[in-house]
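Renewal narrative, Specific Aim 1. Our central claim is that a sequence can be written position by position from structural information alone. The example that follows is taken directly from our test logs and has not been curated for this report. It begins with the structure tokens describing the chain, in the order in which they were read.
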């Protein structure tokens, strides 16, 4: 199961790289229309996600038990808005304005922010390995 997780992690990174490079190529070929392209990509990706979600809910018949998970639905929706919509919009705008070679390393600093936010809101303390990872991430950027 862990090997499958590594596989999906690598595949995810590969598709994010292809996505970023494809977007920059498209952005370079369409002058002053980046915001429309970004909004189209956001709509398209969210629409595809909605189709997969509906298919999953109908297949598992799990939609009846959702009323028991209001807190989970709230935080899941919050994560979707912040990570999915606002995060993706910001990522694509950064690629458009900075280029993929600057935007991607900047966006890969998210573990640093996740650790800081987890410390304050979840009271999670990082160990020596986590702190050394933060320092390595900070200095390699």
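The sequence written for that structure reads:
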């Amino acid at each position: 199961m862990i090997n499958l997780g590594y596989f999906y992690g690598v595949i995810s990174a590969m598709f994010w790289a292809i996505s970023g490079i494809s977007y920059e190529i498209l952005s370079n070929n369409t002058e002053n229309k980046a915001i429309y392209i970004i909004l189209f990509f956001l709509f398209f990706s969210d629409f595809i996600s909605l189709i997969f979600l509906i298919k999953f809910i109908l297949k598992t018949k799990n939609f009846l038990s959702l009323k028991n998970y209001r807190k989970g639905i709230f935080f899941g929706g919050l994560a979707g808005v912040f990570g999915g919509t606002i995060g993706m919009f910001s990522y694509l705008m950064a690629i458009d304005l900075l280029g993929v070679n600057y935007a991607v390393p900047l966006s890969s600093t998210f573990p640093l922010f996740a650790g800081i936010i987890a410390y304050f809101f979840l009271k999670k303390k990082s160990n020596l390995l986590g702190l050394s990872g933060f320092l390595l991430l900070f200095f390699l950027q």
